[in-house]
């Protein structure tokens, strides 16, 4: 959606620009300028709506305005995966140092990463509201136009507020009726997020005119997710079941799991039957600074010699890797203590040193999620280990993989004009159909339908069990590792079912930016993340020394601090409208 050239306009949108002279007939609107009059029609409303979509990736670069990037990436790789224990910041200690205290749960309100995320999300809100204002004044809009455009704008506004709510908790809700956006953040905004998403679900058409546009079913998926966050499980079940049974893609084809797990992360197979809600990326389209590509992921590639050319960030944790160990007989994971044994790594070894990868049984999704030595890394050949790691003693031996492009796609699905080939056309899928299935399973468990939940979880696992979804060895003659994925026969009780579906989200959605927010909404963040911090900082070989002494503080660390810069800006008459979160 970022192909349009109006991505920067809303910073001063609704002010009418008119240069005045003494003679009224000399009053003119400068050619090319934007005004309320120019935009208050269907065409203008559509343009503004595309601008609202364009902020989904967390980045703006156009017309002299530059905002966001990896600090505010729509993938939430820092806030969802690094903070959720799936990954380390990576690189070395001195690069992007603002992430260091975030990873240790010691960040302060002055950390600019938080301010960038806040600004990008409210820029998205602003663009949605400007769309609605222009539409309200459009005399050429049909009832159908108004219903659809309003539905899309309110969906996006709900999404941006949802992002803010799950990160900061205490945030203002801003709609098109608010003339002065400096409002308090003391009210709970869940009801208003829910209202926006429900309106979109109730009013958007099932089929849309273009890929990337939100339809009824994408709105239902995010609405159902919001209901899960609010613990409205029966309502969530109803909505998510409708998406599961009746949902179709924007082009009208039924949602279904792709045959190959890996095709969810390939630019050649994007906008597939499994893509419910995705950020649209494109490259080599003339945009300055490759602004329409996956800019927020540009740091997250192996350091030397491999794809991307930069920069060694976003390195999977040993704790995540260990999660993919399975029982040799059943093919099921250890739901209670996945760190009882450890997957073998090449920590401490040079690439020239001999190494044989782990021989134990593993879930096949590991090697599409994590790059590890000796295992083929897409079509780049076997991951060489230390030669592709910037600082192995600091952040470990692993590399991210789901965000990485294939060598054969270099220059066609990566931007040729940018200083690194790490800006790609590989969409970020905010909600996959597999996610919908697992959210529905979660809702079924909470209302007591354990058998139905088991069948849903097994549907996702069955794909991982199919050898077509396995990484092949270098010769292409068999699997690259000892893969085995079994199906659950039954859930003994609700507690076991909860463990299973929560664990499955790690295996299926690992490194996709969801983990931290899942842990918080389940109420187990303190337990899980303190366990993780202790494990990652105390291993004999893979110890991450920089995490020693780090602690997740219950009733504080669940949310990030409201940016101090925003509190300062909200001051009126010496009193700030925005209040800080507890403990900061």
Structure description:
- With 584 residues, the chain is mainly α.
- It contains 18 helices and ten strands.
- The protein has helices spanning 36-39, 42-53, 77-82, 99-103, 112-136, 143-168, 190-203, 216-229, 233-246, 318-323, 366-369, 392-395, 433-446, 450-465, 494-509, 515-522, 525-536, 564-569; strands at residues 59-62, 65-68, 87-90, 275-279, 313-316, 370-371, 399-400, 428-432, 571-572, 575-576.
- A two-stranded antiparallel sheet has the order 1-2.
- The protein is globular and about 70 Å long.
- The chain starts with 35 loop residues before the first helix and ends in an 8-residue tail after the last strand.
- Residues 1-33 have low confidence and may be disordered.
């Amino acid at each position: 959606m970022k192909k349009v050239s109006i991505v920067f306009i809303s910073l001063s949108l609704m002010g009418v620009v008119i240069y005045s002279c003494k003679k009224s007939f000399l009053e003119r609107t400068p050619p090319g300028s934007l005004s309320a009059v120019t935009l208050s029609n269907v065409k203008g409303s559509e343009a503004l709506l595309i601008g609202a979509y364009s902020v989904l990736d967390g980045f703006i670069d156009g017309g002299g305005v530059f905002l966001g990037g990896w600090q505010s990436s729509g993938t939430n790789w820092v806030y969802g995966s690094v903070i959720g224990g799936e990954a380390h910041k990576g690189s070395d200690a001195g690069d992007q140092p603002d992430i260091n205290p975030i990873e240790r749960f010691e960040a302060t309100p002055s950390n600019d990463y938080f301010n960038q995320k806040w600004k990008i999300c409210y820029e998205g809100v602003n663009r949605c509201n400007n769309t609605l204002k222009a539409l309200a004044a459009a005399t050429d809009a049909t009832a159908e136009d108004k219903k659809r455009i309003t539905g899309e704008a309110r969906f996006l506004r709900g999404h941006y507020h949802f992002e803010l709510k799950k990160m900061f908790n205490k945030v203002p809700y801003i709609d098109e009726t608010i003339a002065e956006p400096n409002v308090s953040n003391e009210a709970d905004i869940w009801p208003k997020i829910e209202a926006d998403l429900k309106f979109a679900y109730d009013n958007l058409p099932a089929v849309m005119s273009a890929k990337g546009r939100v339809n009824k079913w994408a709105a239902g998926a995010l609405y159902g997710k919001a209901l899960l966050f609010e613990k409205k499980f029966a309502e969530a079940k109803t909505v998510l079941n409708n998406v599961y049974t009746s949902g179709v893609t924007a082009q009208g084809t039924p949602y279904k799991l792709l045959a190959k797990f890996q095709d969810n992360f390939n630019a050649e197979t994007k906008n597939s039957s499994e893509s419910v809600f995705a950020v649209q990326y494109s490259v080599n389209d003339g945009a300055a600074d490759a602004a329409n590509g996956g800019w927020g992921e540009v740091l997250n590639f192996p350091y030397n010699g491999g794809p991307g050319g930069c920069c060694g960030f976003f390195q999977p944790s040993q704790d995540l890797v260990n999660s993919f160990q399975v029982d040799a007989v059943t093919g099921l994971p250890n739901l209670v203590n996945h760190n009882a044994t450890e997957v073998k790594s090449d920590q401490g070894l040079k690439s020239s040193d001999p190494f044989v990868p782990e021989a134990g049984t593993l879930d096949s999704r590991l090697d599409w999620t994590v790059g590890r030595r000796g295992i083929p890394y897409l079509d780049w050949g076997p991951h060489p280990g230390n030669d592709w790691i910037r600082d192995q003693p600091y952040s470990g031996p692993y590399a991210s993989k789901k965000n990485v492009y294939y060598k054969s796609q270099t220059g066609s699905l990566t931007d040729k004009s940018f200083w690194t080939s790490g800006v790609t056309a590989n969409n970020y899928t905010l909600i996959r159909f597999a996610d919908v299935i697992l959210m529905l399973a979660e809702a079924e468990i909470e209302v007591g339908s354990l058998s139905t939940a088991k069948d849903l979880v097994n549907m996702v696992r069955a794909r991982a069990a199919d050898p077509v979804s396995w990484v092949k060895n270098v010769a292409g003659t068999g699997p690259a590792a000892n893969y085995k994925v079994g199906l659950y026969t039954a859930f003994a009780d609700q507690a076991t079912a909860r463990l299973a579906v929560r664990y499955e989200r790690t295996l299926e959605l690992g490194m996709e930016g969801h983990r931290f927010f899942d842990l918080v909404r389940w109420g187990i963040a303190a337990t899980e993340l303190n366990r993780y911090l202790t494990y990652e900082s105390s291993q004999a070989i893979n110890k991450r020394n920089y995490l020693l002494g780090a602690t997740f503080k219950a009733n504080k660390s669940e949310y990030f601090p409201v940016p101090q810069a925003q509190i300062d800006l909200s001051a009126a008459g010496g009193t700030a409208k925005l209040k800080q979160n507890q403990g900061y």
